[in-house]
Amino acid sequence: MKTNPSTEFTSSRAAGLTRLDLVAVLGAVVVLLVCFLPWVGQTAMTSNSIRCRSNLARLSLACVLYANDNGQYLPWAPSDYTSGRTLNTVQVFAAGGPGTNLTVGAELPDSQYVMNPDNWSIHSECGSLYAYATGGRKSPVGYFTGYKNIAAVYRCPDTGIKGQTLRVNYSLNRWTHPAFGKVGPMGAVLDAVPNPGEKVLLAQLAPWVMADAGFTPGEGAGTNIAFQMHDTGIPFAFMDGHVEGVSAAKAWRMTTNETDRYFHPTRR
What we know:
- The chain has 268 residues and is α+β, with helices and mostly antiparallel strands.
- The chain has one domain.
- 40% of the residues lie in helices and 7% in strands.
- It has helices at residues 5-69, 81-86, 110-115, 117-120, 130-134, 160-166, 248-256, 259-263, and strands spanning 171-173, 200-203, 214-215, 234-238, 243-246.
- The chain has a five-stranded mixed β-sheet.
- A hairpin with a 4-residue loop joins strand 4 (234-238) and strand 5 (243-246).
- 37% of the residues are buried.
């Protein structure tokens, strides 16, 4: 049987080129991965920042909806760790965290959180905001270690083991609570807040300083207050519903020298 030499040559050459092409393609893929891995990592960080800001925006909206149903009074966080465990009022953002186990400036190791998930977890079901933020039912008994549910809107994807243990990674401006003497006996009235676009409602603290679900303005950033930094800044939700990422320098000024301007619900 006669064969066509040109066909044999073409088939053999094509097979050889296919192997070379494969090596070339694999090499190109490796080069591209090396070039784009930093970009992929940055994209993941940005994605987490976007998710975090989206969570804060949703929680801020939940606060507004709560106020609309409750005489324009904003929900408040526990006044301290103890009340966070026992408070039975409907006006509560969420209940307690590690509380008095925390020492200012000393970060507890992850292992301590892992070993105490029930005692230290902040359960979002305890707060009256829960129904507005998730559509679920608020816990009828307040803080309860038996609750194991996780509501994604309360969780930041960038907080690691401590944030996963606490379950609630955001803190409410505690000056909305009547106990601090900044507002009336029922709390802060949303439609009476001056300059709501400047007044902070929610912030994201670093999990290791979250004794409970509230933070007290004026304690000083870097001591009792340590914020969670993202690549787009520290996220704050304001009383007009918008969310903004601010620099560490601005956060310091806001929580030390300009507390009335940014946190006091009744002062301009």
